[in-house]
Design goal:
The complex is a heterodimer of chains A (430) and B (461). Chain A has 430 residues and is of the alpha+beta class. Chain A contains 12 helices and 15 strands. In chain A, the strands form 4 sheets. Chain A has a 6-stranded antiparallel β-sheet. In chain A, helix 3 packs parallel to helix 6 and helix 8 runs antiparallel to helix 9. Chain B is built from 22 helices and 1 strand. By secondary structure, chain B is mostly helical. Chain B is globular and about 70 Å long. At the A-B interface, helix 1 of A face helix 7, helix 11, helix 12, helix 14 and helix 15 of B.
Chain lengths: 430, 461
Amino acid sequence: MAIRADRGGQRRPGAGFLRLAGRKKKAALLAGVPILLILLILTFDKSVFLFRLAGAALRSGKGGRDYLTAMADCAYRRPRLLPLLADESGNPEFLATWIASHLRRGEGQIRNKDTAPFLERVTARFPENILLDSLGFYEKRTGSRDWGNFDPLFFRLAGDPDVNAVSYRALTGAFQDGRLQADALPPLLSYLAWMNNPALAGDLRDWAAGAGLPGEVLAGSAGALSSLAPAARINPEAVRKALSEVLHVEAAELELGKDMMDAAKSFEPGAYDEPWEFVDMSRREPFATGSFAGGADAGAGPALRVMGFFVKNEPGRIPCRAGFSRKPAIPLGAKTYLFHFFYRTLGAGERPSFWLAAPEFIPERELGPTQGEWRRVLYVFRNGELGIPESQPQLRMWGTGTVWFAGIGLCELGIRALNLPSAKEALFYE
Amino acid sequence: MSKRLVLLYAAALCLLLNFLIPPFQNPDEPQHFGAVLIYALGSSRGPEIEERVIEQMDRFDWWRMAGMGRPAELPRRFADIPFLHFAGSELMASQLVLYHAAAGSLLRLVPSEDVLTLYYVCRLFSAVLFCGSLLLLAAAFSQVARGIGQTAGLGFFFILFLPQFSVLSLSVNPESLAIFWGALFFYALAARMSGRAGRLTLAVLPVAALGGFLTDRTGFFLVPLALILPFFFLKRGQPARSLTLIGGSLLVTLVAASWAAWLLPVQVYSGLSAVREYFLRGLPQAVRLAAPPDFAARYFLRLLDSFWLKFGWMAFPAPGFFYYVWRTAALLSFLGILVLAGRRLLGFHQAGLPEKPGPARTGRLVGVCAAAVGLQLAALWVTSLPTQSFAQGRYLFPVIFPLALLFVLGLESLGDIFGRLTGRVFVAAFLIFEVIFFVLAVWSQIAPVFHLTVRAPHPGI
């Protein structure tokens, strides 16, 4: 307990070290003001860091993009945070932002004593990533790898213009030394165009032309991509007309219920992909190894696009595929339904399909390739006989290639229709 | 009470309790000590550390004291021990609270890897923090005694002889550091409000708040308190001065927080994550869930009783009579605080109650103290209600200064209704009762339970 006497001789218990007076006070002010100013200047970026960190830590949704970018920025500034971020070491959004933060500031050497343990986890999660290899993340390279087995982190980084210098160096190097085959280039250019990274696509195309790659490798990689989904044919009247034609009945005899998936909305920019989630059934048990990318493709309609880059047949594993699953399940009654959508394949080798319910109710239906044409699918099923309680439709692709889906709808089909197929379900193409 | 006397008393008490209380007989000590050892010896030795700590727990018959039989084969990990399974030392170390890091750094200076030696060094660290806290609290109550009145200053003796507070003086867990930050904060506050301290308090308050935030969630209340505190410095007729003070205080807080986040990002992140986990997620549930009346009653009684005394792993209470006296005193004090507030806010003196004018700053200090206690109680309630778990009285020790001040002010205020000196008599009577109880608790409860019984009288927790 500090007890002091003031000038008047009065004892002041506890006044102690917290009060300055006289010369000491002046000296403290003289020294304190400039120190405070310097401190404030030095504090600015720390305050920004504090707000970013607090924003990230207090956010309830840890998987959100805002959280991941804020946390990546904080982890870049203070690598000591990395050991806490075990989940984030497998998150492409986080990693891409974190890596891009280094590259933007010209820091090519990301591996150091602070980051090494974290990078071990990253490379264990992404063992065949050409871009990570180019950045020197793989310290010990053992055995052969499928470098064409692009992972989600590769896709995220390749689409990021901030990483173009590294991507260009890594990809051209891989094509030159044979780790990537020439036929991997067209889908890659297509992907880059889709991701709005024309600079890297242009550089790679120029490099390929200069390197003397065969002309057919580059031909047609972009032109066929720009075909827009037929938005004008999605309204109920067009669906009714198309169905009447395939069923050979008068359109007036068909009674279509309200669209349960709001197909019209599927052509509204910014809203069409909301209920659809990209599901990649590869890279995890029990599926075989494969490389897929998927998401909204505003430049095609808008539509949903899925691309298959690489598949590997592995005995004992289920063949891989990827596609889109509708997030909220749709309850079904004992009625007849029409499931309809447009799809389009880029080439002749793709294997698109759709899935409405578990195989004990109804089998998955494969669709034929369209070689660049949009095709409408009309699928009628009698749920009174099938007994599907609810449906969470999935539109997907097996193997490599590119497929688009658009204008997806599901509605009840009225009983006035006289010429419905007699089977429990029937598939028609318009 | 002089500084030397306080130190001498605290040192003697720690020495006595060190002999009386066997190792690991304070709540959560094994896991926190394990986390400290991880800092001191390295995270790669986590499993070995737990095994060695469990050996020491066995050596001191921890199983019997905790109310369970000794297992035929010693477990190797805390996760294998009932009611320790929820938090291994590695988990606690991953939370990276300041106490573990500080104690771990201290242990690195010790030229021994003997677990028991390191444990006693941790006890010494806690004892030093306890002595420091007592000195700060004594200084704070000296300020209060001069500013408000001698009776209010007696709050220090309420703390000094509070049995549970003394029992925890050697506990190897973050609360010892959280109590220290609380004591520093309220010392600076009391000095500031007494008008006897300069602007340096503006720096001490946010630093103490940050320390509390980085130490344990029982110290989180200091952050919102530090943020609202400048508004208590408002002075009538001096808007420019008041605004300068508020602005300066908030600026210092921002600077301190920014540098803390920069230099201790892991700790700050862990603290903020704890805020999200414990408070932000629990708050909507606490608001939505109406507490069952029986739960609320049991919750507050258990909080009150364990604040008074429940030593060991909350296993050993004192005879019931002492709790009834304590509960009655607490209730009377609470009523007294209402009377005090009524006098100030509603003018009860006009209704016939005797007016008791005090210095203008009394109201402000009481307001801050009530805000601190309210914040801590609300935080405990928000974290307890969703899981219907019970908070322990020791969680209130970081707010021991405002609690003690409000307690004696409440008793005095209620007593003053009956006569001019009755309030002081109330306080003095309670303090005499407390001292008697404290002596009885040490010699007729703590010593016999740990040293004179062959079987724990309370078989379960």
